[in-house]
């Protein structure tokens, strides 16, 4: 299902996840701001939902990639 994700170099995925996950750096990262809005039930505007997706998807993809690497490593060992 996520085989295409394995073809993206890990260092590129890390850089994109960090840059988009933390941008803008001041006053606070959008991802953090949107997650706080989501937790408070204030994430209702389309632009805010889009912003959450744009800044959050690379972080989620990186997490999926790392989990897949971990699982494939454990399969190879044993």
Radius of gyration: 15 Å
Count of strand segments:
0
From the N-terminal CA to the C-terminal CA, the straight-line distance is 23 Å
Provide the residue-averaged pLDDT: 88
Q: H/E element string?
A: HHHH
Summarize the entry for a quick read.
The chain is an all-alpha fold and about 80 residues long. The protein has helices at about 5, 10-20, 30-40, 45-75.
Comma- or semicolon-separated keywords:
single chain; mainly alpha; elongated
Describe this structure in words.
The protein is mainly α. The chain has a domain at 29-78. It contains 4 helices and no strands. α2 (10-22) packs antiparallel against α4 and α3 (30-40) crosses α4. The longest helix is centred in the C-terminal third of the chain and has 32 residues, at 46-77. The mean pLDDT is 88.
Could you give the topology of this structure?
Elements: H1 3-6, H2 10-22, H3 30-40, H4 46-77
Helix pairs in contact: 2-4, 3-4
